[in-house]
C-alpha cells in the first residue's frame, strides 16, 4: 500500500533533487522518487529548510522531469536487514545482495546511521590483537576496540597487508578468532576479486561480511557503504557478542564522494574543496568502534586511505589522524627496496599500545624493546642523511654500527612473507637479535635485567644472519 505521493519537483542537479518542504519530513528520511514511466529511484533527505527539501538519489537522475516526477516520503530512515546470516554474504553499497543468494530472512532492521552510545558505557581498550606482522605487533600494536588506520599511497601493497591482517588476526589472551566486515568504496573490480579470492583460499569467507561499492557504481552510494558495514558490525558485536574487525577501503574515495555532493549543493568549500564538516562526518564513522559495558563483543576498525600525492598533511589523512588512535604509514622508499610490508618506522604509531602490552598481555620486555628499536632506527635515519653528505667512509665506527643495525632492522624485522604469521615472542626475539649488533651502552631504553634475561636466549635460538654493509660484497 502506497502512501501520499507529491507530484512535481523544483530542480534536478546531478544526484540532487530539490522539492518543496512537506510536513513532518525529517533529516535522513528515505524517499521514493518515481518518474513518468513508473521507474522508482531511492533517495535520502540530506537537508531540510523552511521552504525546500533536498533529496540525494542513489543512482542516475536522468529521465526525471520537473512536472511528472512524484515523490513519496517513507517516514523511515535508511535501514539494513540483519541476522547472523550476514556472515559469508556479499552485498552492494546499499546492503542489497549481489552474490546470487536471496535477501536475508529476518524481520530485524537497524538504522544505518547508528545509535548514540553513552560515553560512560564505553570500556577502555586493553586486549592485544596479534596480527602476526612484526612491524605492527612489535612497534605499533593493535588493541581490541581500537581504530587504527593504514595511510598508504597509489601502488603500495595496502590491499595485501590488509588481507594478511584479516587472515591472521586473533586475540592472544583468549585465542579467539574475529568476524570480519569488509567495506569497499569506489574500488576496482580486480581489487574486490583479490579480497574475495583471498578469503576463499584461506577459508575465512564464511566469517566475512562484504559490502562492495565498486568504481562503476554511483559515487553517491559510497556515502552509505561504510554506514551499512558498521551497522552489520554493531549487530554482530553488541547483540551477538562477537569480536568484529572492520576494514574500510578506500576512505579517500568516500571523501571524494562527500566533496562531490557538497559541491553540487553549493556549499562553501573548506580545505582543498572538501566540505567544512568533513571532520565531523569522518568522526561519525570512526567513532562507531570500541567495547561497551554489558556486551562481550567488540568492534576494531582498520580504515585504509590512499594519501593523494603521498601527502600526509592532506585533509583526509590529517583529520583521520586527529580522530583515530594512531596510524600505520606505508613508505614508498621501503617498498621500492623490495621490503614487505613497507611500514614506515617513525611516522607510524599506536596511541593505545602502552595499555595493551607488557607482563600478562604480551611479554614484560615488549615496551622496552619497542622503545629501543624506535630510538635506534630514528638515529639510523639521521646517520644516513649525514652519510649522504660526507660519505660512509668518513663516519665514526659507532655510526657504522647503527647503519648495520638499520640494514638488519629493515631486512629481518620489517621484512616478512605475505603468509608468514609470527608470534609476538618471535617478533620480540628478532628485535633482540638485531639490537645485539649495538654496544650494550647504546641500549639505554632497556632495563639491564631484561638484556641479561632475553638477549642470550634470543641469540642462542637463531643467531642473526650476516647482512653485508652497503658497498661490501656479500
From TrEMBL:
Pfam families: ATP-synt_ab, ATP-synt_ab_N, ATP-synt_VA_C. GO terms for molecular function: ATP binding; proton-transporting ATP synthase activity, rotational mechanism. InterPro entries: ATP-synt_VA_C (IPR055190), ATPase_F1/V1/A1_a/bsu_N (IPR004100), ATPase_F1/V1/A1_a/bsu_nucl-bd (IPR000194), P-loop_NTPase (IPR027417), V-ATPase_su_B/beta (IPR022879). The keyword Transport applies. GO terms for biological process: proton motive force-driven plasma membrane ATP synthesis. Keywords: ATP synthesis, Hydrogen ion transport, Ion transport, Transport. The keyword Ion transport applies. It comes from the Bacteria. Residues 355-454 form the ATP synthase A/B type C-terminal domain. Residues 9-74 form the ATPase F1/V1/A1 complex alpha/beta subunit N-terminal domain. Residues 132-350 form the ATPase F1/V1/A1 complex alpha/beta subunit nucleotide-binding domain. NCBIfam families: PRK04196.1. Produces ATP from ADP in the presence of a proton gradient across the membrane. The V-type beta chain is a regulatory subunit. Belongs to the ATPase alpha/beta chains family. This is V-type ATP synthase beta chain. It comes from Teretinema zuelzerae. The gene is atpB.
Amino acid at each position: 500500500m502506497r502512501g501520499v505521493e507529491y507530484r512535481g519537483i523544483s530542480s534536478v542537479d546531478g544526484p540532487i533533487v530539490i522539492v518543496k518542504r512537506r510536513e513532518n519530513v525529517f533529516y535522513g528520511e528515505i524517499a521514493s522518487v518515481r518518474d513518468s514511466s513508473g521507474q522508482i529511484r531511492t533517495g535520502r533527505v540530506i537537508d531540510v529548510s523552511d521552504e525546500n527539501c533536498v533529496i540525494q538519489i542513489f543512482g542516475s537522475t536522468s529521465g526525471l522531469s520537473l512536472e511528472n516526477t512524484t515523490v513519496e516520503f517513507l517516514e523511515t530512515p535508511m535501514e539494513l536487514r540483519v541476522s547472523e546470516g550476514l556472515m559469508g554474504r556479499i552485498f552492494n553499497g546499499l546492503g542489497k545482495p549481489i552474490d546470487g543468494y536471496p535477501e536475508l530472512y529476518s524481520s530485524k532492521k537497524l538504522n544505518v546511521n547508528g545509535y548514540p552510545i553513552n560515553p560512560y558505557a564505553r570500556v577502555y581498550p586493553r586486549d592485544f590483537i596479534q596480527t602476526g606482522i612484526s612491524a605492527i605487533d612489535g612497534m605499533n600494536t593493535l588493541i581490541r576496540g581500537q581504530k587504527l588506520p593504514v595511510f598508504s599511497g597509489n601502488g603500495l601493497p595496502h590491499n595485501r597487508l590488509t588481507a594478511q591482517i584479516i587472515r591472521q588476526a586473533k586475540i592472544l589472551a583468549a585465542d579467539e578468532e574475529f568476524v570480519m566486515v569488509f567495506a569497499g568504496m569506489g574500488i576496482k573490480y580486480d581489487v574486490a576479486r583479490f579480497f574475495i579470492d583471498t578469503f576463499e583460499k584461506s577459508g575465512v569467507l564464511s566469517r566475512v561480511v562484504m559490502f562492495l561499492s565498486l568504481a562503476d557504481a554511483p559515487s553517491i552510494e559510497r556515502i552509505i557503504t561504510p554506514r551499512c558495514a558498521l551497522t552489520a558490525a554493531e549487530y554482530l558485536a553488541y547483540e551477538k557478542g562477537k569480536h568484529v574487525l572492520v576494514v574500510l577501503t578506500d576512505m579517500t574515495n568516500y571523501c571524494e564522494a562527500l566533496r562531490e555532493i557538497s559541491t553540487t549543493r553549493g556549499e562553501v568549500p573548506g580545505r582543498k574543496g572538501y566540505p567544512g564538516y568533513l571532520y565531523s562526518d569522518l568522526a561519525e564513522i570512526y567513532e562507531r568502534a570500541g567495547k561497551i559495558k554489558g556486551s562481550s563483543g567488540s568492534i576494531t576498525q582498520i580504515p585504509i586511505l590512499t594519501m593523494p600525492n603521498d601527502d600526509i598533511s592532506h585533509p583526509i589523512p590529517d583529520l583521520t589522524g586527529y580522530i583515530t588512535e594512531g596510524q600505520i604509514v606505508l613508505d614508498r622508499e621501503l617498498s621500492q627496496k623490495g621490503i614487505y610490508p613497507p611500514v614506515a618506522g617513525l611516522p607510524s604509531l599506536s596511541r593505545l599500545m602502552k595499555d595493551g602490552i607488557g607482563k600478562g598481555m604480551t611479554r614484560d620486555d615488549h615496551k622496552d624493546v619497542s622503545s629501543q628499536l624506535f630510538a635506534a632506527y630514528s638515529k639510523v635515519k639521521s646517520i644516513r642523511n649525514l652519510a649522504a653528505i660526507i660519505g660512509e667512509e668518513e663516519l665514526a665506527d659507532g655510526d657504522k654500527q647503527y647503519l648495520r643495525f638499520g640494514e638488519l632492522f629493515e631486512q629481518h624485522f620489517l621484512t616478512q612473507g605475505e603468509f608468514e604469521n609470527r608470534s609476538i615472542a618471535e617478533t620480540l626475539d628478532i628485535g633482540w637479535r638485531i639490537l645485539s649488533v649495538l654496544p650494550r651502552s647504546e641500549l639505554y631504553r632497556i632495563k639491564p635485567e631484561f638484556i641479561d634475561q632475553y638477549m642470550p636466549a634470543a641469540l642462542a635460538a637463531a643467531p642473526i644472519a650476516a647482512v653485508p654493509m652497503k658497498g661490501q660484497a656479500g
